[in-house]
Amino acid sequence: MSFDLNSLLRPHIAQLQPYTSARDEYTGKEGVFLDANENPYGSVTDADFNRYPDPYQSALKEKIALIKKVRPSQIFLGNGSDEAIDLLYRAFCRPGIDNVILLPPTYGMYEVSASINDVETRKVSLTSDFQLQPEKIFDQIDSNTKIIFVCTPNNPSGNKVNRADVLLLLKHFKGLVVVDEAYIDFNDEPSFTTHLDEYPNLLVMQTFSKAWGLASLRLGMAFASEELIKILNKIKPPYNISGLTQETVLAALGNQEKVEKMILEILKEREFLKSELEKLDFVKKIHPSQANFLLVQVPQATQIYNDLIDQKIIVRNRAKVLLCEDCLRITVGTREENTAFLKALQAVVKPIQS
Ligand SMILES: *Cc1c(COP(=O)(O)O)cnc(C)c1O
């Protein structure tokens, strides 16, 4: 089916004249810089932060491009993945008119961001084993449907969704298919970025918040066609990624060995946590996970959740979420943390069971 990015775009965004920053108009590195009203003496810190950062994060994108096997022009960097999600709504969804399709249970920000932007969400639940229902998704699509959000591995369930189902959406849907791969580093499935040149309606999101251990820096990646990336760049705040974040992540990218070591450790701990939970007869179900967390069904999840907090063990209560009845989402911790969790879990369950 034909895909036309320009007809998908909100008309006023197509016509928008973007802000041109001082660093847009002159990109050289040498000279006397009297163009951006910066402080010429430096910063009130040990390090100097007085100059505005590169608005397009060129050095960082070149390095990411090599690692992710895409072109730099196919990369958008945001202040967390959440910024890309918000910009997509603002670029493509007319408030009160357009709609997007969400596949619950899934990441909460797709819906919150839709609400902020006054965009209708149409929900097509996953199956009981958290797979897509393509037929039902296609039933919900109309001429104002702009985006379908797919999360794989999915949060909060932890599983991968069947690749063939996502490809079916990419083939037949004339709007954008966003594939959120926040947890891609915890499984060996190839990224959907390998399909970028095939599907101009594909946008893949990844993040430095999980496997890379850089959640506090706020850096999310979006990969898409050059045309789509240009649109996001056009409407983003000019200096959306701080200089400190750009420099720190650039340095981090040179230490891939450490990430890989940490990922292996987390995968080992995920198996440990799973096998220990399997030994507990009150645990009703441990959902298969390709991520760095486990979705676990227990009796009276909310009470267990509260009792765990009293023991200073904080997990995520998903008990009221569709298809996650009585489930807790437990992030894989270090061996010490996992052991502390397992001990506290057994202690709080005893009085509930008796
Ligand atoms: C954690 C997570 C993100 C990451 O968001 P950032 O804003 O990049 O920290 C994105 N999507 C999903 C599904 C997540 O669970």
From TrEMBL:
Its EC number is 2.6.1.9. Belongs to the class-II pyridoxal-phosphate-dependent aminotransferase family. Histidinol-phosphate aminotransferase subfamily. Keywords: Amino-acid biosynthesis, Aminotransferase, Histidine biosynthesis, Pyridoxal phosphate, Transferase. It holds the Pfam family Aminotran_1_2. The lineage of its organism: Bacteria, Pseudomonadati, Bacteroidota, Cytophagia, Cytophagales. Pathway: Amino-acid biosynthesis; L-histidine biosynthesis; L-histidine from 5-phospho-alpha-D-ribose 1-diphosphate: step 7/9; Lipid metabolism. Homodimer. This is Histidinol-phosphate aminotransferase. Its cofactor is pyridoxal 5'-phosphate. The keyword Ligase does not apply.
